[in-house]
């Protein structure tokens, strides 16, 4: 199962059916880590992946895990961002949805600059 961990907080997520090539590229690159950055209620960090997504959108839900091609970053949303209208999460640019985490809001305690890590665990 894929997971994102930062500052002692680990969040597991389920892959979506979307963007299979992006999911495969992330899984092949795992594990990897980067410096956590925050943009409202979004955590994102660099990946070693550079792949063109099959589909992108600015429509994300609380718990969405997405790949941002423009920044080669993995993103997790749990609430409003500076681009939001109301309480829904909204990325600054289109992202490729790749997963969903039920407890993404746990990442709200992570501070910018902490090391964020993406890994796959055996289930």
Explain what the structure shows.
There is one protein chain. β7 and β8 form a beta hairpin. The chain is mostly beta strands and 123 residues long. The chain has a single domain, classed as Beta Barrel (Cyclophilin), CATH 2.40.100.20. Strands 3-9-7-8-6-5 form a 6-stranded antiparallel beta sheet. Helix content is 8%, strand content 35%.
> Would you tell me the structural class of the helices and strands?
mainly beta
Q: Give, in spatial order, the strands making up the sheet with the most strands.
A: 3-9-7-8-6-5
Instruction: Report the CATH architecture.
Output: Beta Barrel
C-alpha end-to-end distance: 6 Å
What is the total domain count?
A: 1
| Total strands | 10
Nearest-angstrom radius of gyration? 13 Å
